Amino acid sequence: EDQVTQSPEALRLQEGESSSLNCSYTVSGLRGLFWYRQDPGKGPEFLFTLYSAGEEKEKERLKATLTKKESFLHITAPKPEDSATYLCAVQGAAGANSKLTFGKGITLSVRP
Amino acid sequence: EPEVTQTPSHQVTQMGQEVILRCVPISNHLYFYWYRQILGQKVEFLVSFYNNEISEKSEIFDDQFSVERPDGSNFTLKIRSTKLEDSAMYFCASHGAPPLHFGNGTRLTVT
Q: What phi-psi label fits residue B30: left (phi over 0), alpha (psi between -120 and 50 degrees) or beta?
């Protein structure tokens, strides 16, 4: 059974204070690892897909990296508008429409 | 930008009643999903749907649940006899090529 563990559960940063969010996973053949952002009362909003170890993707202040066991979401010089819950999910190799397995998420608060 | 739309945004129902949650996926997408999120817990897979049939379902998706694509645009989740533990956010999602795009959910409250 696919499993995703995210840590820490919550993170409070000062504006400009860079940090990293961790996602550890076990999956029977990784088809893709996904990062989503979720604001309160909203659905998950897609950020990145990573497919193989060593891959990196960047978007504004966010950079996602992938190893064979973990993914990191690095946040450089965060702003208050980066405050949200960040979800990590994996898709196994069963098929193009196989389910995503999510972690519990990391709630990030950025203070001005 | 095209988006997945869900109605209603909030539904309150009494235990034992039937509810239908509605979704309009992105128009050229072929794969459709329902996920749910109980307050404070993980987003959990319920069911996937492709080519007018269920592709995969979780243990949660028992005989009380059903899905339907009644026409070319809508995708529905029916819960036949709601229980208190069905209270959750229900998210519809769709994709053509990855990634999965989610709607903003229907908050179902069962009293």
A: alpha
Query: What's the confidence (pLDDT) of residue B14?
Result: 98
**pLDDT above 90 coverage of chain B, percent:** 87
When pLDDT is averaged across residues A5-30 and rounded to a whole number, the result is 96
Q: How large is the average pLDDT for residues A48-69?
A: 97
Interface test with B, best of A97, A102, A106, A107 (most B CBs within 10 A): A97
| pLDDT of B105 over the 80 cut | yes
Can you tell me the distance from the alpha carbon of A56 to that of B77, in angstroms, rounded to the nearest whole number?
A: 37
* A112 to A74, A82, A85, A86, B103: CA distances (angstroms): 19, 11, 18, 19, 30
Domains of chain B: 5-96 (2.60.40.10)
How, if at all, do strands A19-26 and A3-7 pair?
antiparallel
Test B99 with A34 for CB contact under 8 angstroms.
Answer: yes
Question: Rounded mean pLDDT of A26-53?
Answer: 95
B99:A49 CB<8 A: yes
Q: Do A43 and B58 touch (CB under 8 A)?
A: no
**DSSP assignment of A9-63:** SEEEEETT--EEEEEEEE-SSEEEEEEEEE-TTS--EEEEEE-STT-EEEETTEE
- Residue given tokens 């999903």 in the structure block: B33
Fold topology of A3-111: Immunoglobulin-like (2.60.40)
pLDDT of A101 higher than 80: yes
